[in-house]
Design brief:
The longest helix is centred in the C-terminal third of the chain and has 21 residues, at about 360-380. The protein has helices at about 15-30, 75-90, 100-115, 130-150, 160-165, 185-190, 200, 225-230, 245-250, 265-270, 290-295, 310, 325-340, 340-355, 360-380; strands spanning about 1-5, 35-40, 50, 55-60, 60-65, 70-75, 90-95, 115-120, 155-160, 175, 210-215, 235-240, 255-260, 275-280, 300, 320. Helix content is about 45%, strand content about 20%. It contains 15 helices and 16 strands.
Length: about 375
């Protein structure tokens, strides 16, 4: 079976959707099938290549709108996408997210070629493009994009129950959840590569309490408020793994802005941190970093974002913030840091829940069942 994965952004760009796509494509290859990822071109990377995992990658020419966060497919890219459909003759298509121009083109191409497709959505709100006329234009575009994709007939899935509820905004009833996931064993193997003690690397004493943030350093993610909160906690340091416009602000507040560090280092940080905190106001679908924190046994403090109702179904699994003010974050951090035994007990419960329900093998098995069902329906037409 040949599966085309359409993902407007993909590795080496770091993000939850990118790793979601890679994990599914990797398991497709390991299961003896052909995986082709169609994504956006990046400077210095080939237009077509097969990576060491055996995943074929096709990169389409795009305009990098919003500093690359919203790649818009150029006419030459649309032609390349069409050629990919004609030459690879896929049995099944997986389209990541509902709002990109690539997603619209992919859905329409799949319909023209009679290839069954599904759309997996990853957000619980509109793209944060600003207020006023710009914000209105963004919301109108998203509604148009959803309408165009919906007319092509694919089934929609969400990565969390919250995403499925959000899709109703566009008149879409999700077929079900294909949750975000991780591979706990693979994460630990990755962390063991060139192991590093982060306290030593940062010149901190062994008893320094580490609070970790992982993600884009943008206002919606709340890293600046977290840095302000940590400022008021003696013997505590915030390490922020990620990059973005808030980086200089975090440094002014005394945080360690580590930049976009390799993924294995992120996992090492999660294994060594006392608390992982995500005070996001962003329209998350199901943050991968929450799952990775749970897999590494790191106590979690976060806003009630999408996915928390599944991963952290009660206070015995993690701590949810009532709001994202520095004062509220500081108080919650102090409670966890002052009682590490209880914090670790919550972390163990979260890890147990994750291993039971949120692994890539389980999600891939479900996607393959959907693909086989859809291809049988197609053969019977």
């Amino acid at each position: 079976m040949t599966i085309l994965f359409f993902s407007a952004q993909y590795l080496p760009t770091v993000g939850g959707v990118e790793r979601y796509t890679w994990n599914l494509a990797l398991r497709t290859v390991r299961a003896g099938h052909r995986a082709v990822v169609v994504t956006s071109a990046l400077p210095g990377l080939l237009d077509r290549e097969t990576d060491p995992d055996g995943i074929e990658i096709i990169r389409l020419p795009v305009w990098p709108v919003m500093k690359g966060r919203f790649p818009v497919v150029r006419p030459a890219g649309a032609a390349a996408l069409e050629r990919a459909m004609e030459e690879r003759k896929p049995d099944f298509c997986v389209i990541q997210t509902r709002m990109y121009t690539q997603s619209i083109l992919a859905a329409r191409a799949a319909r023209r070629h009679g290839v069954p497709a599904i759309v997996i959505d990853h957000s619980t709100g509109y793209m944060p493009v600003g207020g006023g006329a710009v914000g209105l234009a963004g919301r109108l575009y998203e509604r148009l994009a959803c309408g165009l994709i919906r007319r092509t007939g694919p089934d929609f899935y969400g990565v969390s129950a919250a995403v499925c509820r959000w899709l109703k905004t566009f008149g879409i009833t999700a077929k079900g959840c294909l949750p975000n996931a991780v591979d706990p064993e693979a994460l630990q193997r990755e962390a063991a590569q060139r192991p590093m003690d982060w306290r030593t690397r940062l010149g901190l004493s062994a008893d320094t309490r580490l609070v970790l943030f992982v993600g884009r350093l943008i206002p919606e993610k709340g890293a600046a408020a977290l840095a302000e909160a940590v400022q008021g906690l003696p013997g505590t340091v915030l390490v922020a793994a990620g990059d973005g416009p808030d980086r200089s602000r975090l440094q002014e507040l005394g945080a360690v802005a580590a930049g976009a560090v390799p993924h294995r280092m992120v996992v090492q940080l999660l294994n060594q941190a006392d608390v992982y905190c995500l005070p996001t106001r962003y329209a998350e679908g199901f943050p991968t970093t929450l799952l990775e924190a749970a897999a590494c046994g790191c106590p979690i403090l976060c806003t009630p974002t999408a996915g928390t109702e599944e991963l952290l179904p009660g206070p015995a699994y993690g701590t949810l913030l009532e709001d994202t003010s520095p004062q509220t974050i500081r108080a919650a951090l102090k409670t966890l840091l002052d009682d590490p035994d209880t914090a670790r007990e919550k972390a163990r419960a979260a890890r147990s829940n994750l291993c039971a329900h949120f692994t890539w093998d389980a999600v891939f098995a479900r996607i393959m069942a959907i693909a086989q069902e859809k291809t049988k329906e197609r053969a019977g037409d």
